[in-house]
Amino acid sequence: MTDQLTPVTVEPGAARCPGPSTRDIVLGDSTPTPAPLLEESYAFEGDGDLPYEEFTSAAYARAEHDHMWSRTWQWACREEHIPEPGDYQVYDIGDRSAVIVRGPDGDIKAFHNACLHRGTQLKPPATNGYSAKLRCPFHGWTWDLAGELVDLPCEWDFPHVERDEFRLPEVRTGTWGGFVFVNFDDDAEPLEDHLGVLPEHFADWDLGERYVEVHIRKKLPANWKASAEAFLEAYHILETHSQSIMTAGDANAQYDVFGDNVTRFIHTTATTSPHVPAEKRPDEQELLAMLMARKNAGDEVPEIPEGERARDVYARHMQAVLGQQYDNDFSDLSVSETIDSIEYHLFPNAFFFPGLTIPLVYRFRPDGPDPDRCLYEVLYLRPKPKTGKVPQPAEPFDLDVDDTYTSVPGLPTSLGQVLDQDTANLAAQTRGFKASKKRGQTLGNYQEVRARHFQSMVRRYITEGRAASGDTGPSTNPSTSSDTNQGAHA
Ligand code: FES
Ligand SMILES: [Fe+2]
């Protein structure tokens, strides 16, 4: 079944899956494809093994905490989580914690979540709510939402405290696409620079015009980078999600690296995997019937007009179904925007899908100092209705390590099953990292370039951070790697 995919030997990274590429497919659509989806940006980044130690070592996790999470922009919450003045949300990453507040003028600020008296956290971890002022629960020192110290009980005993010097220290914030980002580094580059091509690519896909329909917080039995990597490639679909191969592309997915911080894959829906041999491939009418049966069992399967394919008809069908469901008109969207799996990764941990039918965003973060544990948050972002009230953001639904995603209300069962399949791999991979005689992972040059690029960026932060601080921790140069790129991608 896979013989047809044996690559032709060419320059490293130049080989591609035989058959129609993602670009070939979208260029054959019945609608023009938006320019960002026609961009291609791939360069070979090396083929050396990447050490398992970078996933399993507590020292490496600590170095990430000290040198990467301390200096990089990270999605903290959605703007709708703090809609009104006085609303706050606590964002925690490792030892660091920020209280993000909506100020009286609607502005957003974030403060280091620690009292300036004797250090107590002002708000408990991961909490949110309304708080007209930030009052310490220990002795009651209180700051307003602009960070001014406005109450100091027994001030007569603190003649050495100048209120001007006891403003609550701020954490840098920025917003994009309805997301609030924070950065604990006062000298970090502006968020706009960190976002790279995202604002340009998402100009017509404003995620700020979406609302949170489903929100899952799942504990995963794996390193946060290994977990993220499982979502950076479509290579595993054949083995892990084989239920999808009749109706989705995989080996012919497109992978792009746009500068340091943004990577992307596009894999097509309503096409059949190149792995499926000719005699088993459905014709276009059969393919459409399979898709309709999966998504909307009972709907009549329309006849595909002359000159069109299953994906053209299926896209129009989904535009109509979702248009009705979400009080919108999606008929201007291209076929690819409507049905394909289009995933952007923003370093270090955020994933954004601009498409209509797969409206996911998610992020991975370490869960405490244990490198084998992480938090995975999945949100379904649906378009705001054209009329009527925008629904409130969904309350987070918590899943422990062994809980299935299929128990989440509102999450399509088929997606829940896919995510369960991914989670099962992660637990096995974590055990294998430690059981392995071989000491690193061997990546595909093209299909796994995003994972390599991502790892090299983490390594770059640690290397630079250690150099700046004089820290001489364990080497971050992969001993077996022949990377051509340590993260500096043109
Ligand atoms: S520690 Fe906050 S008021 Fe004392
Ligand atoms: Fe998967």
What count of helical segments does DSSP give? 13
Q: Percent of residues in beta strands?
A: 15-25%
Count of domain modules: 2
Structural class by SSE content = alpha+beta
CATH architecture group name of the largest domain: Alpha-Beta Complex
The strand line-up of the biggest sheet is 13-14-15-16-17-18-12-19
User: How confident is the prediction overall: mean pLDDT?
Assistant: 94
Fill in the CATH topology of the largest domain: Naphthalene 1,2-dioxygenase Alpha Subunit, Chain A, domain 1
| Contiguous runs where pLDDT drops below 50 for at least 5 residues | 478-490
| Amino- and carboxy-terminal Cα gap | 38 Å
In CATH, what is the class of the largest domain?
Alpha Beta
Bulk shape: globular
Small ligands present = FE2/S2 (inorganic) cluster, fe (ii) ion
Radius of gyration over all CA atoms, rounded: 24 Å
Provide the helix percentage. Answer: 10-25%
How would a crystallographer describe the biggest sheet? 8 strands, mixed
User: Tally of extended strands?
Assistant: 20
Summarize this structure as a short list of keywords or feature phrases:
single chain; 490 residues; alpha+beta; Naphthalene 1,2-dioxygenase Alpha Subunit, Chain A, domain 1; Rieske Iron-sulfur Protein; 2 domains; eight-stranded mixed sheet; seven-stranded antiparallel sheet; 13 helices; 20 strands; 21% strand; disordered C terminus; binds FE2/S2 (inorganic) cluster; binds fe (ii) ion
